[in-house]
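comment on this one:
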Amino acid sequence: MAAGWIDAVIGGGGLVLIPLLLAVVPGLAPATALGTNKLVSISGTTSAAITLVRRIRPRITPAYVLLALVCSGAGALSAALIDATLLRPFIIILLLAVGTFVALRPSFGTEPGGGDVSRWRRWVVLLLVGVIAFYDGIFGPGTGMFLIMAFTSVLSQDFLRSAAMAKVVNSTTNLGALLVFILGGHVWWQLGLVLAVANIVGAQVGARTVLGGGARFVRAALLVVVVVMSSYLAWQHFG
């Protein structure tokens, strides 16, 4: 439930659920933990996406969804070839850069954008969606937050609308990676389906928290996640 709430608000529920699975079930293969987490995550994230889209009605470009599906699947297939520990320093630096940028610009993401979006901006967002989706398939922490930042900065819109778009795309990245884990036999279905119910409950509470708090709440949550996630990854890498 906690992971579902976190995922719905800003993303990062995997940082709660994956270590919990590995701690509670000794001997569980890391690939099975990742695959089961994807099954749980897609349930909650999709549930939150439906709730947010119904209320906010963002413009979802089909190309974002299709590219996210393909790239996340490709990332999951490449996961065994890339050492995740090599990514941690880069992700920590990127998280701190995002946090610093948002902290120094109080109005960023809290005011609705206006006007049409130029074609080159749409291409930039498409590229970022592909890169972030590929990263989600390989490693994953912070995917939702990176999507929110991409949509907010490039499309010049508020965090609330970006959060709704991010949930739709994040649901698709989870699906792409999940399909790969299913084909590899790395999903613990019985446990995953039970946890998915709790994740959906948490995600629904989280989606309503976002709608009630608005863009400023999402901004504050983003800064908190930056601190927590960068500290956790640094502890993993240097501890």
